Amino acid sequence: MSFIELTSAVMSPFTIRSVSTVPVSVPSITIPTPAAAPPVPILIPVARKGRLKVLGPDGRFRGYLADRIQDGKYRFLTETPGLALSVLIPPRSSDHPFEIQPASQVAQTKDAVGVTWANVPAPRWMENSSFVAICCSWSTVKSTTTWATERAVWRLSDDSELSVRYPKPDGGFEPLQAHLSSKGGPVLWFKYSRPFAFDYDKVRVLFEQAE
Questions:
Q1: Radius of gyration of the chain (CA)
Q2: Alpha-carbon distance 19 to 163, whole Å?
Q3: Average pLDDT in the 59-68 region?
Q4: What would the 3-class secondary structure string for the chain be?
Q5: Closest Cα to residue 66, out of 52, 48, 49?
Q6: pLDDT at 182
Q7: Model confidence over 191-209: pLDDT tens digits?
Q8: Are 206 and 160 contacting, i.e. CB atoms less than 8 angstroms apart?
Q9: How far is Cα 171 from Cα 168, in angstroms, rounded to an integer?
């Protein structure tokens, strides 16, 4: 056997033969992407709507502040919720005095349930401990009189009781206490230093939230 024939015999098992190929279609694969997270809702605090309810020293209901103004002052109480003054207060109470707004007038004018020293111009209200203040329509009294009048005077306790801190010219506050005549009439705000009045009862003014 020649060398060439011997080489062919040895290499024959390792000869590469052509293999026919058949194209195979491969399905496309979609890789899922994480779903977009839903937007986080933004909670905007809203004012609370309600009425101003007056309770006597024994807890007896004395009426609501009525939605009726005379000479710029809230001089009347009513036992009917539908006739009560509807008001808005801030969503959260704080140590800083805030405003109370009449709910029916928010869209028309920037009014507030203020406190005025009737017939007493500022700053003379500090001169006499017997002077008394009363709830008022701030915009009416401010535009028609020279009386000492403020609107950001309210504070709310944890049990929904409203109190008044009237600002002093020196930057401090004069705390006032609500009183009501035994014969009825408007809620009046006395200084704590005012001499005791036998015909007036200390009362509590509460914010009653509307349902």
A1: 40
A2: 98
A3: 96
A4: CCHHHHHHHHHHHHCCCCCCCCCCCCCCCCCCCCCCCCCCCCCCCCCEEEEEEEECCCCCEEEEEECCCECCECCCEECCHHHECCEEECCCCCCCCECCEEHHHCCCCCCCEEEEEEEEECCHHHCCCCCEEEEEEHHHHHHHCCEEEECCCEEECCCCEEEEEEECCCCCEEEEEEEEECCEEEEEEEECCCCCCCCEEECEEEEEECC
A5: 52
A6: 83
A7: 999 887 788 999 999 999 9
A8: yes
A9: 5
Let me know: does 176 contact 115? Beta carbons within 8 Å.
yes
Tell me which long-range contacts 57-66 makes (C-beta under 8 A, separation of at least 24). 57/201, 57/202, 57/203, 62/180, 62/203, 64/208, 65/113, 65/135, 65/187, 65/205
User: According to the model, what pLDDT value does residue 13 have?
Assistant: 46
pLDDT tens for 126-174 read: 999 999 999 999 999 999 999 999 999 999 999 999 999 999 988 899 9
If phi > 0 it is left, if psi is from -120 to 50 it is alpha, else beta; for residue 95 that is: alpha
The Cα 5–Cα 34 span in angstroms is 67
| 58: Cα separation from own chain's centroid | 30
* Residue that the structure tokens 């801030």 belong to: 90
